[in-house]
């Protein structure tokens, strides 16, 4: 069992949620309540990572931020290391790859709130922030939760981008899913088996927890 | 009463959300620090044919000198690409001379490096496979004509020098065109070995160093391919510009008696 890889995986999952959740709530709600020109295009762009092969994302990240690109050289001069092949680079890639997983459920969550409810809250004299925090967010909560869990689970399972952008560096970019591949190639089936079982367990427990939580939040749906 | 309770529940939930968001950000910042600041041993990149030998040498180095290096294995081509894209490796042990030469001409290495080993290919057939192994590939060509070759494993010739050598061998025996559609191509020679030793292919052309290990050798039969049947697998290593003293010592250690013995035991020839 590669504990460093488990740690990298969990940090990556938590970090991706930390970046995307606030963004997702803001943008998901915006997409749910506002109508604007070009919304169709924006929605398509937000969903693109869902259908895009991870290798495409990996390719663009390496070309844009690799050591041979001007942007990559600027980043390296600023931070002291390159963005690809670092944990931060992995986090960046993971955040992009997970945008649809966090935005879509949150958007659906906010869309399910009837506009009457919002109007009623406004006519009761609640400020926009109060309306958001006390009425909308609690109602959209199952969507937010689903977005967070999907992101976390998807990050744990991410493989292609991680291998391309991360490069399998122990303790930094070697996640559990890459470690399994690595151990397989080293004929170390036992370790690979232990890690595969760990990932399977984490995934099942995560999904079970969500289902249980969303039932508690929304008892009439159960 | 119910309304009040429900209100309270809403408030608590909102607070919970705020708190958990804050906690996540805090955890994340701490985590970033931990992951990036943690004292990691220096990382070196190595061709996948070294999977067994170099792991042993690194362990011995740690025992002898009390210093650790982390080794990342991959195909020479992939690793070269990663180094050019800025991967933080401090040393590169390739499976050929061409890939390290590319890095040297790109100005990424200390010097041109040294040849540390010469590798060999074997034809391997897992237990239960209909393939008869011999150094002239007669068994393979017979089985191929009989239509018995369902899948045959080699490494990707574009990125793995052992794959390129395997292609050379198959071409030399006039089997390349016939076997092409039956090939399963591993990203690295280790993956090709994985395909052929687990019985997922009737056999494969893989690195001698990977079948020397007892756990692998007992999974089937193999025959050494004559060196003259392919371009020599002269393996060069280079120190990269960012190499730290520990890795400099490892570079020297690789050329010492202890490391050479391990390489020889794993089926490599070692230059004088």
Short description:
Chain A contains 11 helices and no strands.
Describe the fold and architecture.
The complex is a heterodimer of chains A (222) and B (272). Chain A is built from 11 helices and no strands. By secondary structure, chain A is an all-alpha fold. Chain A has a single domain, classed as Orthogonal Bundle (MetI-like fold). The longest helix of chain A has 31 residues, at 3-33. The relative contact order of chain A is 0.16. Chain B folds into 3 domains: 1-38; 43-118 and 234-265, Periplasmic binding protein-like II (D-Maltodextrin-Binding Protein, domain 2); 120-229, D-Maltodextrin-Binding Protein, domain 2 (3-Layer(aba) Sandwich). Helix content of chain B is 47%, strand content 18%. In chain B, α3 packs parallel to α4 (98-105). The radius of gyration of chain B is 25 Å and the shape is globular. The N and C termini of chain B lie far apart (90 Å). The interface between A and B is large, with 42 and 40 residues.
> Any idea what the shape of chain B is?
globular
| Low-confidence blocks of residues of chain A | none
Structural class of chain A: mainly alpha
Overall pLDDT of chain A, averaged?
90
Strand order of the largest sheet of chain B: 2-1-3-10-4
Please compute the radius of gyration of chain A using only Cα atoms.
20 Å
Q: Structural class from helices and strands of chain B?
A: alpha/beta
Radius of gyration of chain B: 25 Å
The fraction of residues assigned to DSSP E strands of chain B is 15-25%
The CATH architecture of chain A comes to Orthogonal Bundle
Biggest interface, chains and residues, is: A-B, 42 and 40 residues
Query: What percentage of the residues of chain A does DSSP assign to strands (E)?
Result: under 5%
Q: Sheet bearing the most strands of chain B, described? A: 5 strands, mixed
Overall geometry of chain A? globular
CATH class placement of the largest domain in chain B: Alpha Beta
Helix content of chain B: 40-55%
Which homologous superfamily in CATH is the superfamily of the largest domain in chain B? Periplasmic binding protein-like II
Mean pLDDT of chain B: 90
